[in-house]
Amino acid sequence: MSADLGGRVEQYLEERRRLGFELRCQAYCLRGLACYVRNIADYESLTLDVMAEWARQTNLSRVDSRTWARRLKSLRPFTRWMQQFEPRTEVPDYTIFGRPSERPAPHIYTEPEIIDLLAAARRLGPESGLNGRVFEMLFGLIACTGMRVSEAIGLHNSDVDLQRGLLTIRRTKFAKSRNVPIHLSAVSALGKYRWIRDLTGATQDEEAPFFPDTRLRRHGEPLDQRHVERVFEGLRKELAWVNRGTHHAPRIHDLRHTFVVRRILLWQQQGVDVDQAMLALSTYVGHAKVSNTYWYLQAVPELMAIAAQRFEDYMPEVCDV
């Protein structure tokens, strides 16, 4: 039965990916669960007890009830799907470990922190090589567009149109593609970077990566996200930022959060109707639902004043009814 579970996991992942879902985290959890039940001698079906014991494993990264709740939550879509083949499969709810905690608040970078990050990236060795330029421009592009890390490192030369000031993000998260207009200052910086990059002999083939890996064994290939994370971690330790989020430390992804927050704050200062502009912002950053963009209003302290003002504006209308 446990071997059959592994097959069902792969079948489920294949079906969902055909619909456009990437499921990286869920795939990791489901394959871990299938591996876990292979060692249960009397395993017959997925029960709440089995899944709860898997979630409690101390060899996983964390051992608190909130983490266990998140692990169980990741199993729910699969267990509902699994019931068509194995009706005895149970679907985990919130009665075991409670509800998973809300999304952690991000670290919102200050302008000096971003400037320091780009300067530190530029200093990355070797001194005569391209490595520092690649990471300076990569982090800078994420900061000024709110792109996901995977989107930025996935850019091909043909995706960067500096004549029109337009980036093309190909079938990324949720299997969607979109165009991202960029500011003239970003066009200028990208143009200078590409000129320097091409002088080093990087291929100008249309399908070549815009941000090539400079390491000898992967020279010219697209950057690997784990390598990017390791480089960022080193820079973060060097810069010794004070963490203002609720994650373990500031992350690259928080540059994306910072872009969204700063854009909303700028609109507020300019007197723009934030509600009217939110759909455009949601589309620009590639959110699947506009509610994902509104999340910032109640999750980020810098934007709580906007949410409070919107509530105050709404209350007189309610009282007048």
- Could you name the CATH homologous superfamily of the largest domain? Intergrase catalytic core
The low-confidence runs, each spanning 5 or more residues with pLDDT under 50, are: none
Order of helices and strands: HHHHHHHEEEHHHHHH
**Neighbour order of strands in the largest sheet:** 1-2-3
What is the count of DSSP helices, taking H or I runs of 4+ residues?
A: 13
CATH topology of the largest domain: hpI Integrase, Chain A
Distance between the termini: 61 Å
Q: Return the average pLDDT rounded to an integer.
A: 87
CATH architecture descriptor of the largest domain: Orthogonal Bundle
Largest sheet: 3 strands, antiparallel
Beta-sheet strand percentage? under 5%
Total domain units: 3
Q: So what's the CATH class of the largest domain?
A: Mainly Alpha
Helix content: 55-70%
Structural class estimated from helices and strands:
mainly alpha
Oligomer: single chain
Q: Shape from CA axes? A: globular
The total of beta strands comes to 3
User: How large is the radius of gyration?
Assistant: 23 Å
SSE layout and pairing:
Layout: H1 2-18, H2 24-37, H3 48-55, H4 65-82, H5 111-122, H6 131-145, H7 149-153, E1 160-161, E2 166-169, E3 178-181, H8 184-199, H9 225-239, H10 253-270, H11 274-285, H12 290-299, H13 301-320
Antiparallel strand pairs: 1-2, 2-3
What does this structure look like?
This protein has 321 residues and is mainly alpha-helical. It has 3 domains: 2-82; 111-239, hpI Integrase, Chain A (Orthogonal Bundle); 253-320, no CATH class. The chain has 13 helices and 3 strands; from the N terminus they run αααααααβββαααααα. Helix 6 (131-145) runs antiparallel to helix 8 (184-199), helix 6 (131-145) packs across helix 10 (253-270) and helix 10 (253-270) packs antiparallel against helix 11 (274-285). The termini are far apart. 26% of the residues are buried. The model has no long low-confidence stretch (mean pLDDT 87).
